[in-house]
């Protein structure tokens, strides 16, 4: 058994999913940033590393505030695996945009690795996705929106 029981990690992950859903709905990512410990690390395929909760918070505001990125509001989990020994969660979720008005769905998949830090907090996140697919998703959404 790892440092935390599997049930605790799983409950923390479901809390994480719930906070992401709430933040996406209101386009305010502060509660999401608050899920990370002060010295957390966050990596992805495009942006420079963020190495603190406040740098994560600043990046989230920079990333999700401008149009059309502020239209990426849904992040449904497709599957997840809990590695109890390491305290990790690995998952696939979708970055999904709001309906552009024609009923079409615009989304791309994202793979994430999270490291649990206890007390519903995370010390690390790494996202992997195809930046080209992300750009095509935005372009397709703008076209469907008529902009």
Describe this structure as you would to a colleague.
It is a single chain. The chain has helices spanning 6-26, 30-33, 53-64, 131-145; strands spanning 36-43, 72-74, 77-83, 88-97, 107-118, 121-128. By secondary structure, it is of the alpha+beta class. It has a single domain (6-96, 111-130), classed as Nuclear Transport Factor 2, Chain: A. Strands 1, 2, 3, 4, 5 and 6 form a six-stranded mixed beta sheet that branches. The radius of gyration is 16 Å and the shape is globular.
Short characterization:
The protein is α+β, with helices and mostly antiparallel strands. It has helices spanning 6-26, 30-33, 53-64, 131-145; strands at residues 36-43, 72-74, 77-83, 88-97, 107-118, 121-128.
The gross shape turns out to be globular
| Structural class estimated from helices and strands | alpha+beta
CATH topology: Nuclear Transport Factor 2, Chain: A
Number of domains: 1
The CATH architecture can be given as Roll
User: How large a portion of the residues is in β-strands, by DSSP E?
Assistant: 25-35%
Assigned CATH class: Alpha Beta
The description of the largest β-sheet is: 6 strands, mixed
Rounded to the nearest angstrom, the distance between the terminal CA atoms is 53 Å
Gyration radius, rounded: 16 Å
> How many helical elements?
4
* H/E series: HHEHEEEEEH
Mean pLDDT: 96
Number of DSSP E strands: 6
Estimate the helix proportion, in percent: 25-40%
Spans of at least 5 consecutive residues with low confidence:
none
């Amino acid at each position: 058994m790892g440092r935390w029981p599997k049930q605790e990690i799983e409950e923390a992950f479901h809390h994480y999913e719930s906070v992401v859903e709430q933040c996406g709905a209101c386009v305010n990512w502060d509660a999401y940033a608050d899920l990370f410990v002060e010295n957390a690390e966050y990596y992805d395929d495009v942006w420079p590393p963020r190495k603190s909760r406040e740098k994560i918070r600043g990046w989230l505001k920079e990333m999700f505030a401008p149009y059309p990125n502020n239209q990426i509001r849904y992040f449904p989990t497709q599957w997840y695996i809990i590695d109890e020994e390491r305290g990790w969660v690995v998952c696939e979720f979708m970055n999904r945009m709001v309906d552009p008005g024609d009923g079409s769905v615009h989304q791309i998949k994202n793979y994430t690795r999270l490291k649990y830090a206890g007390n519903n907090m995370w010390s690390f996140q790494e996202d992997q996705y195809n930046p080209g697919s992300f750009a095509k998703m935005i372009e397709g959404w703008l076209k469907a929106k008529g902009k």
